[in-house]
Amino acid sequence: MTEPTSLAGPSTTTPTASSPGVTTPTSSITPPTSAAGPTATIPSSGTSGTQTRQIPLTCSGHTRPVVQLQFSPFMLDNSYLLISACKDGMPILRDGVTGDWVGTFLGHKGAVWSSKLNRDTSRAVTASADFTAKLWDTYTGEELVSFPHGHIVRTADFINDTHVVTGGAEKMLRIFDLNQATSTSNVGGRCDAAALELEGHEGAIKHVTWDHARSLILSAGDDRQVRVWDLRTPTPVHTYVTDEPITSMDLSADGELVMCTAGRTVRFWDASSRQLVKAYTMPYDVSSVSLHPHTHNTFVTGGSSDLWVRVYDYESGAELEVYKGHHGPVHAVSYSPDGEIYATGSEDGTIRLWQTTPGKVYGLWQSRKAKEDSLLYR
What we know:
Layout: E1 39-41, E2 57-59, E3 66-71, E4 81-86, E5 92-95, E6 101-104, E7 112-117, E8 123-128, E9 132-137, E10 143-148, E11 153-159, E12 163-168, E13 172-177, H1 178-181, E14 196-199, E15 205-211, E16 216-221, E17 225-230, E18 236-241, E19 246-251, E20 257-262, E21 265-270, E22 276-281, E23 286-291, E24 298-303, E25 308-313, E26 319-324, E27 330-335, E28 341-346, E29 351-355, H2 368-376
Parallel strand pairs: 1-22
Antiparallel strand pairs: 2-29, 3-4, 4-5, 5-6, 7-8, 8-9, 9-10, 11-12, 12-13, 13-14, 15-16, 16-17, 17-18, 19-20, 20-21, 21-22, 23-24, 24-25, 25-26, 27-28, 28-29
């Protein structure tokens, strides 16, 4: 096992609107369209209408494509954290409001495909191409436990902060008991034995999430299925089926909707009734989706075949905003817990933070008057 390493210390740089690489996207809003029933086809971006211009904050630090993003689920004193997974093998923790670097977790020897924070943000779990998942202390950066696997690990999440569930190329879910894994008898911080293994997927598992409200595990992957698992049974209790390999899957912030992207389609299922609520077919391949955490009135998508970030009306599917700022496909999108911003991660190795309401005073975004005053009194 790689020796534990500490975070490199406090942030020394603060991204601003004038940071290198920040662009001012100019794009048009598509006229609203109505969704006929739970499914609808979204037309290509139009050229009529206008939208508010905005300048995103650009967060550098990664050297290869950013493949997953997660904000901490709760806010503390109006602040929250953002963790990113990247093919450079070095997950990064940031201040979610400003994008300031907090620390880098060092220890993986391959691409990191997934990184998640637990509910109180004291721990992080990562999944890697080096055939391991790792548990980290987010305060010190120390590697607490390494979970060896027989093949590439693509995804991991916490279960009630007491267990970790992983999935990957082995096509099975492994569940590890953290109390046992971090016990003093666990010499070297290595946990080889899973407390439970769940089999049933026919392809690599690339996404897993824990449903806190219903005590269920949701897993998805290349077999075009989202499986719902009850830990009391060895088989899935429900299966959502798509017609393309799944590129992202998660729950809405309130746990009421299952969100999934596959091919060019974005789907929303009711997590309780398991009925399809909305399905929108886009004119591009969709890589990721995130729903506004409070209002559910908008969702944002990233495209795996272009450089655009798009915001849609949830009820009608109308395209509201289109932004270009990245220099490569957008692999990951995520709303912040307060819904004020959303983050995007790209093939270009950067993370960009965008305002839900462009021009609003928030974080490092200042009002125009504040900017003028700061220049006047220099």
